[in-house]
Design a protein that fits this description.
Blueprint (H helix, E strand, L loop, with lengths): L7 E9 L5 E9 L1 H6 L18 H12 L2
Antiparallel strand pairs: 1-2
C-alpha cells in the first residue's frame, strides 16, 4: 500500500438518531503529505470542477452499460 500506518485515519461513530434508530457514520482522513508523495495536491487543475456535469441520459446509459457486463 502506498501509505504509511499513520497517513490514513479512519473514524467510526454510531448512535441513536432523532427517530430513535441507530445510525453509523465514518470518516476517512489522509494526510496531505501522503497525497503529495503520490503526486496529488490541491493545485492540480483536475482537482476542481471545470465544466458542467454530463446530462442525465449520459449517466443512465453508463449505468445500463455497467449492469450489462
Amino acid at each position: 500500500m502506498p501509505f504509511e500506518n499513520d497517513d490514513v485515519t479512519i473514524g467510526l461513530a454510531c448512535g441513536p438518531g432523532p427517530d430513535g434508530r441507530w445510525h453509523g457514520w465514518y470518516s476517512i482522513n489522509v494526510r496531505d503529505e501522503a497525497l503529495r508523495r503520490l503526486g496529488l495536491h490541491p493545485d492540480q487543475p483536475t482537482s476542481k470542477v471545470v465544466g458542467p456535469s454530463p446530462p442525465g441520459w449520459w449517466h443512465a446509459a453508463a449505468e445500463r452499460a455497467a449492469r450489462g457486463r
